[in-house]
Amino acid sequence: MGSSQGSTLTSAADVDVCLVDFLPVYVKELIAGGAAGAFSKTAVAPFERVKILLQTRTEEFKSLGIFQSLRKLKQHDGVLGFYKGNGASVLRIVPYAALHFMTYEQYRCWILNNYPSLGTGAHIDLLAGSAAGGTAVLCTYPLDLARTRLAYQVTSTEQLSNHLRSFNARPAYGGIIDVFKNVYMEGGIRSLYRGVGPTLIGILPYAGLKFYIYEELKTHVPDEYKRSVMLRLSCGALAGLFGQTLTYPLDVVRRQMQVQNQQSVDQLGAPRIKGTLQGLSSIVRTQGWRQLFAGLSLNYVKVVPSVAIGFTAYDMMKTLLRVPPREKTAASAPPAA
Prior knowledge:
Blueprint: H1 2-22, H2 25-43, H3 45-56, H4 58-61, H5 66-77, H6 86-114, H7 122-152, H8 157-161, H9 176-187, H10 189-192, H11 196-219, H12 229-259, H13 276-287, H14 296-320, H15 326-332
Helix pairs in contact: 2-6, 2-14, 3-5, 3-14, 6-7, 7-11, 11-12, 12-13, 12-14
């Protein structure tokens, strides 16, 4: 009887192993990356929304600090207001993170297989990370625009009682689909990609630098500590912080381009942002150079736990899905055509 039960359990385990191992490695990387992105994004959603408000609502949040902004946001929208736009953010980050991790590995293998003369240093991670970041952005940008517009909205009792007297120029969105409909009516498909220029200009160096610095830092770690989760998280956090600081002004330009059609009547006199360089000069001229770094301190607070949770969740998912180490994956991958 006992041997029969044991054989049954063994058979079930064998079936489970076969089902998991049947999945291609790139599918496992997609699943692991998407899950990690969802966990990390939801964990820091309150900080993400306040950062967007600091970047775009200068007349209401410019003089407030991080915790004062959180308190004011809670007074206006309640606790659920911290997560307004998070649905669109998660819908964007799941495919974005999945594509980013998976395409990074694929681009890296492709470069190594087709351009062996480039070597195998961390500069390969710079090229692969930049290409992966651009690919992920182009595929998911409309969801990022929807997330920004939903997060930009702030409800207050005064606005409701006065029939939105102060902000009657700002359309109220009921959800992601409503944003898509309204934005599409503004100018078709091109409107869904408003601000994609600064995004690409920012993400290419940021994504590349993030992978480059992360891999470069790991080369200086003794072999016995390379599997340490805390050490990997520390390397990733440093890489993320450094990359964010260099490219943050481009993120501010992107956010303001995305919401400029929602500006209040008092703000309509400001020059419209039509391009990256013009946007940078316009913001410096009309709002001051400090606005290019509005919310950066909050981004520092947000990046560290986001990177920590993201890497931890990704490692756990890879272990659960039995994803082999990169070296084995690269070695077993067929040469690119």
